[in-house]
Amino acid sequence: MQLVLVLISGSLLWADTAAFDLAGPRIEVRVTRAGRTLPISKVPNLQAGDRIWVHPDLPDGQSVRFLMISVFLRGSTNPPPEDWFTKTETWNKRVREEGIVITVPQGAQQALIFLAPQTGGDFGTLRAAVRGKPGAFVRASQDLNQASLDRSRLDKYLSAVREMSNSDASALHDGSVLLARSLNIKLDNDCFYKPRQQQESCLTQNTDQLVLDDGHSQSMVSALTSGSGPDLVGQLSTTRLAGGGAYSPYVGAVVDLAKMMESFHTPEYRYIPALALPHLDELNLKLNNPPSFRKPMSVMVLSLPAVEAAQLPPLRAVDANHVLCLEKPSLLLATEGAPVVFSTDYAHDLVLHVPDGSGHASDLPATADAARGGFAIEAHTVAPDKLEREVVATIRGAWGFDSFEGPAFRLQNSHSATWTIASADESALIVGRENTLHFKSDAAACVDNVTLKNEQGRPIRTTWSSPAANELELKVPLKEESPGRITMLVKQYCAGKLDEVELHSYAEAAHLDKFALNAGDSQATLVGTRLDQVAAVELKAIRFAPAGLARVDAKDELRLSADTGDISTLHAGDRVMARADLKDGRVLNLDASIDQPRPKVMLLNKSIQAGPSRSAIQLGSQDELPQGGRLSFFLKAEVPDTFSRTQKIEVATADASYGVSLSLDDASLVAQDAHTVLATLDPLKSFGPSAFGPLRFRAVDGNAKGDWQPLARLVRLPVLKELRCPESPDKQCILGGTNLFLISAIASDTEFKHSVPVPEGFVDSTLSVPRPENSMLYVKLRDDPSSVNPAALPVLPEPPLDPVK
């Protein structure tokens, strides 16, 4: 690792802050408090009365004799007394074998250790320097401690990233994100867009800028920076020193330290900082400058933990509401907020304190795991049957010599559970598509696996998750399945018996868009899709049965007819709930309202006038309306009992291919009074020459339309011009005319015993017909073959043949 630490002051480059990559001496340190001894790696703070065992571990062949001077400080404006300095000759045999013990005096706030090459006046010179500028050495102690803690986080991060370098890309990404969160390290997400072989080097470059404020230590450097960064992997907390560049808290501490140490420079001594990185009971010193043994000789300065009350780590759960399963293998409790918990051994003897139902508790070993983002719990010794179904467990442990209690976590225990499907999902399993189901249970966090089987026992692939406490979500693809029973089997961690839930899949469900019913009607209309599945519709104890299904504008329209209940109980404007019972047992509900009564009129009288051109055919039915004729009819209003200005009468053919609206505005309707109108219809003008067949009418007022009622039968008439018959009575006559294809059959008697059918597609202008009796033929029109219509034509002789030329 190469750390380049640079201080820019104006236009000058401070070159004495090289990386702390030089290995210095090792010093063994143990601390005893109240009869209990801990290695220095587990001691975050000292207190008055602590006995500190110090043993410099210098090599046997050390050619330079180092004087070790320990000193306690009591603030920046209060020089320490002379007896707070302890001089130790490291070359002394007893010191080399046994070390020394120093006691933290009452009132001390900081502790420093100096390692200086032996000279004549070394001790006195150094003591005078400290007593002369105590504030500078207080600052040095604070910054050394902060830089050492920051360096421990950085080393932990780099080591873990390199361990993960052989993993796949997704594992490196996920692990790096969790590391950054645990250690409060700045993460460059752009690294993950580089080729896989370049990602490790990208994540570990510019390491001097990776360390964010740890949010816990309250050193002088922390006070000078912009404060703790709330986003664990986001903004870099920086400080600007000497008018120069921006630094991380780690770089800021080191740069400030180097600048301060330079101010102590004398002709005899030059002070160089040493980062003390603890491991077990050893302090491994890291130097940023090689020591000099010529004047000015180098004095190595290292700091012991501050003398203060314990600053307990501000650990917190990443998600305090998240529910976990205690029996889950490799249980991980995600935490954040105290990076030094993951980079040092200050927090030790950690357990998860789990209460049981009898007032007792179990303590499960817990390990801080930065690469996984929290505490790994060894729960294999837990007895679920002795615990409540859900418990609140707490991280507990020691912080140095003090005990502390960390965050609490909600934990479930495996047990036989009931799985309640969400009411909205009871009919949500539809074949032919992927479906999502939601279940509630107090064991959702302990689900190990979910399997589905169809009626034939064949497994159905599914994916599942637990997005919230006590909730299980399933994605169920049924594209290749048929409707029927489905069995869900839920396996919980460490549970022998599977939970079994019966489900049912359906064909694509009907969808209800609109239920239309007018007050007073016994007929209703349901609009939607897949309405062939509807067995009945019920509202306010009135049952409607299907009476016909049609497809209109890409939608199903189901006509319904009331078969039970009193329709008079429904009034215009009533808000009702329509319940549709499907044939497979499902139920769909739809809000509806009762519409205003539909308009209704009664036909009083009608008159048919022939067209201006006389025809030889006399229509045999009073309901037949010739195409060129005119129809006049009187109508009386019933609902409402008067005609409004906007009301119209719609006339159309039975297949609705031709239609016309008659209104007061265009004078096709003329009011006789407020209750009665005269309607006039000119079929040729309104419909054109191709319309024929039954005509019907209905009243229309805005969007409200009345029932269709029969009006007349529109027929088209051929033109019969002449009838010529030969002298021989045994021969047929010749009928001449136009549009003879409009005749279905023609006969010489009313009973059509002697008849001639006219074939389809007949285009000739003459037709052989039976000899009439009394000059009368009988015609059945193609537009109304059920009626017999007489046709009177004079019988003309057959014309003579032309002479042969």
Attribute tags:
single chain; 805 residues; mainly beta; ten-stranded mixed beta sheet; eight-stranded mixed beta sheet; 55 strands; 12% helix; rod-shaped; disordered N terminus
Question: Would you give an account of this structure?
Answer:
The chain is mainly beta. The termini are far apart. The chain contains nine helices and 55 strands. The longest helix is centred in the N-terminal third of the chain and has 30 residues. β36 and β37 form a beta hairpin. The protein is rod-shaped, with a radius of gyration of 51 Å.
Brief account:
Helices cover 12% and strands 42% of the residues.
Q: From the alpha-carbon coordinates, what is the Rg to the nearest angstrom?
A: 51 Å
Number of strands: 55
Sheet with most strands: 10 strands, mixed
**Overall SS class:** mainly beta
- Contiguous uncertain segments of 5+ residues: 1-18, 218-247
In helices, the fraction of residues equals 10-25%
Overall shape: it is rod-shaped
How many angstroms does the end-to-end distance come to?
128 Å
pLDDT averaged residue by residue: 85
Number of helices: 9
Query: What portion of residues belong to β-strands?
Result: 35-45%
